[in-house]
Design goal:
By secondary structure, the chain is of the alpha/beta class. The protein is built from twelve helices and twelve strands. Helix content is 35%, strand content 14%. The strands form two sheets. The protein has a seven-stranded parallel beta sheet with strand order 8-7-6-9-10-11-12, sandwiched between helices. Bound molecules: glyoxylic acid.
């Protein structure tokens, strides 16, 4: 019997390819430039599954272009690229990759936190410029990390991973979330549940770990930035539109906060031009989960979801399994 035809918008990694190739007739997009929308719509037309990235939108238009599609598997934990209700209406399963990138992402939030607090990139640029005159008492004075207050917006798996790392730095941890964590977690992580207002006002570092939802879009607004301490830093490894970038530029320019370290942007791959020349900003290219092991795990997870679907099993990471009544 002919294998089902599927499209993967990247070559993925050997471990994921081995899984897919064993079950499917897979078309991989192998061109270094990412697949264009037109090409994606064309190539998905005769496919029964799509393994895609967070940069590819699975929306009504794509679903209309793919009448045979049964599953769309994004190789990302965030799934704001997928119109899940539209998939459900069409009977298409939508899956993502939760759980496998939490620790790697938490590591990177900390990488940004320490680098912005201690001005590492400014120091690196100075050394490379050949103009460093040698040690001096008042060079590159930053903010301490140890013993300070860390505010975590969104206390899911990644937020908790960030909190756990703060224990070693003897930080005070505040968190806000729609749901309060179990008291054992609060105790183990020395984390205090507070409202957002207090978190903005009291934190020395604020790290964002909320998904992008209507309620979290521009959560970092002019109003909330104004509540922050002038010595505080903002770290974002979640989704760009959670931060109002124009308001952030304004807050930095007016020294309402001390700095920001960003891995994600409102209009990726564009960056607000006001952020680019700033020394009090670190700009990373959406790389928080980018370790060899983690990205491989993500691709394998996406592949296994597709395999489950065609095996007649419930894809383990389906976002609409109940709505589709998948067994
Ligand atoms: C990365 O941003 C992801 O959602 O996996």
């Amino acid at each position: 019997m002919a294998k089902p035809k599927i499209l993967a918008t990247r070559p993925l990694f050997p471990a994921a390819r081995a899984i897919l190739d064993a079950h499917f007739d897979v078309e991989y997009w192998t061109v270094p430039e990412r697949i264009s929308r037109a090409e994606l719509l064309k190539r998905v037309a005769d496919k029964e599954a799509l393994v895609c990235l967070l940069t590819e939108k699975v929306d009504q238009q794509l679903l209309d272009a793919a009448p045979r599609l049964r599953i769309a598997a994004t190789v990302s934990v965030g799934f704001d690229n997928i119109d899940v209700p539209a998939c459900t209406r069409r009977g298409v399963a939508a899956t993502h990759t939760p759980g496998v990138l939490d620790e790697t992402t938490a590591d990177f939030a900390w990488t940004l936190l320490m680098a912005i607090g201690r001005r590492l990139l400014e120091g690196d640029a100075w050394m490379r410029s050949g103009t460093w005159p040698g040690w001096d008492l008042d060079q590159l004075l930053g903010g301490d990390v140890w013993g300070k207050t860390l505010g975590i917006l969104g206390f899911g798996r990644i937020g908790r991973g960030v909190a756990r790392r703060a224990l070693g730095f003897r930080m005070r941890v505040l968190y806000s979330d729609a749901v309060r964590a179990p008291s054992e977690d609060e105790r183990d992580l020395h984390a205090e549940f507070v409202d957002r207002d207090r978190l903005f006002r009291e934190s020395d570092f604020i790290s964002i770990h909320v998904p992008l939802l209507p309620d979290t879009r521009h959560l970092i607004s002019k109003e909330n930035l104004e509540k922050m301490k002038p010595t505080a830093y903002l770290i974002n490894t979640s989704r760009g539109p959670v931060v109002d970038e124009a308001a952030l530029v304004d807050a930095l320019e007016n020294r309402k906060i001390a700095g920001a370290a960003l891995d994600v942007y409102e209009n990726e791959p564009k960056v607000h031009p006001g952020l680019i020349p700033r020394k009090d900003v670190i700009l990373a290219p959406h790389m928080a989960s980018a370790s060899v092991d983690t990205r491989t795990r993500m691709a394998v997870m996406a592949a296994n979801n597709v395999v489950a679907m065609f095996d007649g099993r419930r894809p383990p990471n389906a976002l609409n399994a109940d709505a589709l009544e998948l067994k």
